[in-house]
Amino acid sequence: MRHGAAGLIASAALAGCVLGSQPQADRAFEVSAAWIGDRAAVAWYGGHLAHEALFLGWIDARGRTVEPPLQLTDASRDAFEPSLQQLEGDALLAWYEQQPGAAGAPSRQLAWLARVDTEGRVQWRRQLSTDGVRGRIPVVRVAGAVIHAAWLEQRGGELPLLRVASLDAAGNWLRAARDAAPAGLQTWNLNAAVDSHGRFHVVFDSEAGSRARELHWVVADGEELVHRPLRTDDGHASVFPDIAVSGSRYAVSWVDSSDGNDEVYLGCGELVAGDAPATSLPATLAMAHRVTHSASQSMGAYATWHAGEIELAWIESNGTRSQLWRQRFDRDCRPRSTAQRVRARGDAGIPSLASSPQGLLLAWNAMRGPVSVVQLKVWPTLAVSPSAAAR
User: Fold this and answer.
1) Domain-wise residue ranges, the chain
2) Lowest mean pLDDT among 98-112, 190-204, 341-355
3) The whole model's pTM is what?
4) With b meaning 16 or more CB within 10 Å and e meaning fewer, what string describes 78-89?
5) Which of 90, 272, 329, 383 has its CA 20 to 30 A from that of 51?
6) Distance CA 288, CA 280 (A)
7) Which CATH class is domain 103-381?
């Protein structure tokens, strides 16, 4: 671990800031946002070294920058797609690293998990994926002192498998890695949540066994695993799902092409407590709310619960420019506001949302010609006086 050479630029106010360096050919992609203590934090990969490196940057509760960003990997090999969470005031990151194979062989890929303190010191590091397979796109979630992780493993030309495991806060295995469900060769991301009963929910898309990529939901409840497809095999792609859970309520967002254009959808429901994890899974997401109705291509829809409601952010692309949008919904997926464009300095990349009592955090990368930087906005939670609350 070492501090990156990249600088950090931010506004004085908490309303928004820019992280990342400014040299020509700098790169910043695949942001992952979280609250670490009372600070808004964002992880990304990129930089301007020989290989892609992981970085972590944040601002404090007063809107002051903490700089420079921490460079979390040494760029001796490419590091991709961080998944960031808070663990007892520290940063918990999952990612994967890639090395080209020899003589045209497939690239070597390994999925990793590490706990890092606020000074960038590694408390522990664990290899998630198995030696000799291609391990990629890990996602991590924390429930108390329990860490849940999921990732894909692929051996040779076989279909990749979704694997899940759990660890304690010291990095010791609670439940060893196990196969949870088949995935597809076109499965590019995983998203996850933990419910109030401690069950680990993972959503992804896969073309395995269907005419087009369809949504899948896996729940791990102790030793039990349940896997359920969530959309009918209609030949139209349903892709890139995200899941957010608050109490017993869930929200799942995704992009669907069933109406002839890539549009954002949002489905909500109740997670029912029961003896078997299957009771917590909906039978279908057919009764979903269509969010977008534009000629643009919609993509990258991500959701979080904030103050009892659902916040949704996504990208609209017309082929030459990409714009970032957000909208608020109630617990039943009914709109509470109109869709609002988020001002971005450049073409916006896929967003990441995080919520805490401190406020709502939205982060993304933005392209400015050959340079990509990380941008974020924070909507602080406004304090309410007892007298005002009484009224």
Assistant:
1) 103-381
2) 98-112
3) 0.89
4) bbbbbbbbbbee
5) 90
6) 18
7) mainly beta
